[in-house]
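Q: What does the assembled structure look like for these inputs?
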Amino acid sequence: MTTDTWEKFSGRMRELRHLESIAGLLGWDEQTVMPPKAAPGRAAATGTLASIEHERLTSPEYGDLIEGLLQQDLGTERRAMVELAQRARDKAVKLPPELVREMAELASSSQSAWVQARTADDFSIFEPLLQRTLDLKARQAEHLGYKNEPYDAHLDLFERGATAEQLQPMFDAVTAGITPTLDAVLGRDDGTRILPGGPYDASAIMAYCSDLLARMGYDMQAGRLDLSAHPFTSGVGPQDARVTTRVRSDDPKEAILATLHEMGHGLYHLGQREDWVETTIGASVSLGVDESQSRLWENHVGRSLAFWEGEFPKAAAALKPLAAATPQSVFRAVNRVRRSLIRVEADEVTYPLHVAVRFEIERGISNGQLKAADLPAAWNESYERILGIRPPSDADGVLQDVHWSIGYLGYFPTYLIGSVYSAALFDAYTVQAGGPDLVRDQFRAGEFAPLLAWLRSNIHQVGSLKLPAQIIADATGRASDGSIDTGPFVSYIQSKYRDLYDL
Amino acid sequence: MTTDTWEKFSGRMRELRHLESIAGLLGWDEQTVMPPKAAPGRAAATGTLASIEHERLTSPEYGDLIEGLLQQDLGTERRAMVELAQRARDKAVKLPPELVREMAELASSSQSAWVQARTADDFSIFEPLLQRTLDLKARQAEHLGYKNEPYDAHLDLFERGATAEQLQPMFDAVTAGITPTLDAVLGRDDGTRILPGGPYDASAIMAYCSDLLARMGYDMQAGRLDLSAHPFTSGVGPQDARVTTRVRSDDPKEAILATLHEMGHGLYHLGQREDWVETTIGASVSLGVDESQSRLWENHVGRSLAFWEGEFPKAAAALKPLAAATPQSVFRAVNRVRRSLIRVEADEVTYPLHVAVRFEIERGISNGQLKAADLPAAWNESYERILGIRPPSDADGVLQDVHWSIGYLGYFPTYLIGSVYSAALFDAYTVQAGGPDLVRDQFRAGEFAPLLAWLRSNIHQVGSLKLPAQIIADATGRASDGSIDTGPFVSYIQSKYRDLYDL
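A:
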């Protein structure tokens, strides 16, 4: 390999990372500070950027560079860089440019139809555009190819190598493992309010969350906290990871947990190896692993008693009405289990069931059993069967999530993968840190640097050098056969809620 | 011409406008909300975007499209679109890609050296990078070509068709016209504080400025107001023009005048014809005309007594300490004339002299008479001769402006062009509105819609369909010989300050 060839390839990788970074900024801006009337112009500019990225990914010169390099002796890191470049290029090459453009344009118009439909609680507004989206997604799957069934093509876009056949046992095992806990817990909760109802000052909540981020080890010189309708994290570029949260005047829990959740994503982004950030491997390896980071900080830290024992005095000082609570009552409030309609507001125990509904429906859509028109009924039936609750309206049912409107079919399962991985990672960290008592001591003392350091070296700094399952296997010290071990997650749920509800 | 050819050309124009819009967002973000550590990554991404734009501008296919279309009968609008595309392409083609990249990279590193040098008041930190910049600019001028002297190449980048030979008489006439006024005024001012010294609440100033924008007719659904170190406006895209200001706790004047100034730029951007926004002609025609819009709102509105007679009660209610002032005292304060060191803080009378210093020095640099090392002495000599004041330090002298560090040589003269044009435009509006008394009645009543409507149809909606001087000539009802008539500006200064200082 000539130095020149590698330089050329590096330049192309760098350029693609820059385009990704720019797209990230466009997205962040759109969801936080962009003036509303700018939306159509922004959609058009975003489309242009996507076309340019597609054009560069698919250029024959880039293909030749990749093919040439794969013949060479590159060493592990460089080989991984080239292979990931090849993976992204292969997917792009398989898609006709017209389909890429059509999907991008539809994602923009369909999203506003979804907002309208949800606001009006009228699925019929969204249905025709959703059907068009599903048709395009079906074409996309055929172009991309798949292992066993079309759904696998969609899954692989978000979780490298995932298949429905591999995920079905994960859903089954988790559902079977948590259902007894759920049934037992639901009989113990009388539903009365636990935390003071406020009103909480919105700017005080934001200031507290910002302070919390900094104390947890988030570098606020390389990030920001903003408000948005739906909390999200945008890795805008190297040393630039922006998190958002939302606030309610009657309940500060949601803002705090969302902040910790998004912080997990942001820490992962900021923790990438500096010498890799302009390469394909200096990035989140999959959405499942990314979600393992957010779930770990949200649930294993933010929903722990030890965290609240340490944090409560600061939270109560910043958020006045909370002073009437106690660390124990906050702990109970953030872990309260309910059959609820809305996924993003669900507790740890029912959350997997919300995801299971979507997995089942997405598989049915992808494999041709469900059309857009069938979805409201299928959704309600599925919620009743799996969660024991029937949505009274489509707005609180099939219309609640943005994902399908923007063409994200196959994304939902990564939420459960993340939860499952997070429990395995937290177990491994606990062992390495000397056991649960010592970890609790750390949390009570507000010492999160050891946890962050462990995640940095075991997850963040590995980037995308290995496959997701291998990274988790290495971090947890288990052999990887590519399957997802649900044991740690199920044990975590069973034991935590047994203690909490005194089962 | 086949429809297909025009469609292709439109697509390329649209794409270039989108890239421009994206670059605008990167710049806005960098100067307002970007986390500080993100700077190096952002510089790299910005460089990539600039390279992509250059590559697309210079592509042979684009050139063939333009050449082909210019042979056709296109009609006025389409011909103007193609000619402007050709102008941009010609400039790009003349520059070697290495020079474009080198200038972009140097602009990034040189800017931080400038900040350091200014903070440390040590020109030597900046000098080597400035000399490199000037060397690159000299090469750029040779590549671009020029009418009479290298400086013309630089001027034309900012003000289409401007030459030093044409601008010299403007500077001479303005300097000669205002110097007697300046000399007379300076004897009349005793220098005591006019407005209450505060402290003014920063968030109250921002809220007031935001409210002011909305009341002046700025569509806040298509724009924002933010804080930044140096006030600026970013036309991020169609229906997205963001203005910034800065606040001082001891003086609300600066924030208000900067808001009105930037609002003028933003209104020009938002006022472009909707069917042109994705073409080359749906944009600001030149920096001089752009500056005529900002100066008009800042000076002819914001520095008028009638405006303050109407606005004062609202300002005093929002900015508590100001209640001790009067409309007349605010009017005197915003029009106070002083020999000062800093251009951006200068009054209307001395402002042209600050610009004249830079014009003289830039001409000397461009034509090879001045090197970077000569600039501090040349600057101080020029300030003493032209403004009668000698900077005690380089930080308040040659290091005060960001322009040269980012490669903007030839930009400064557009500030005076803008002031001169704004006076001519305001005269024309006054005649059309029925005379000065009626205009004052409008301002006192807070009625700015008629002025905005006149600017919309005479300036904004003309876009870049004509040359800058022609647009001003048409708007003011005068024949255009391409020269810049300084008469209205000089008369405005002479008569306003005669009345104000009772000369």
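Residues 3-94 of chain B form one domain.
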